[in-house]
Known about the structure:
Blueprint: H1 3-18, H2 26-49, H3 55-81, H4 88-91, E1 92-97, E2 120-122, E3 125-128, E4 134-137, E5 140-142, E6 150-152, E7 155-159, E8 162-166, E9 169-171
Antiparallel strand pairs: 1-8, 2-5, 3-4, 6-9, 7-8
Helix pairs in contact: 1-2, 1-3, 2-3
Amino acid sequence: MNLKSSLLLTAIAASTLFTGCAGTGPNTQRGAVGGAALGALAGAIIGNNSGHGNGANGAAIGAVVGALAGGTLGNANDHEQGTIYGSEREARTNVVVSEPPAPPPPRQEIVIVRPAPEVIWVAGYWAYRGRGNYVWVEGHWVRPPSRGHTYVAPHWQRERGNYIYVEGYWRG
């Protein structure tokens, strides 16, 4: 393995492990990993085709940029889909208000047939997205991460005189 290949693998590994993955939803993680791989590949091709032999440098830059972009897009997708987080610590948001805004009334839902015995129904809910805005997240079937975990619906939690919005999560 030559120096360029080593740099390429190091850049991919570093951007995959360290960009956008800590305390985030699954789409953020997949976006960061996918973006890093695609960015590294594109950067290596562009760098190598530039005629200066800069494939490794292009791969490193492409991996970092791709991981950042992919993680950002994945994070937005997590918020739109009402991702269920693995713990309350992961589910806590940075939204702090003195009084939570009231959500619109719940929508009526039709629960479709249970696709498998191990899944649970997560009822639709209004997810808070900041500045008094709520977004409706449709009800859906979800497989718990493991036996004994229960779903905790999104809610406002009072702390030190303020309220913090907590996304849905699994309690083990």
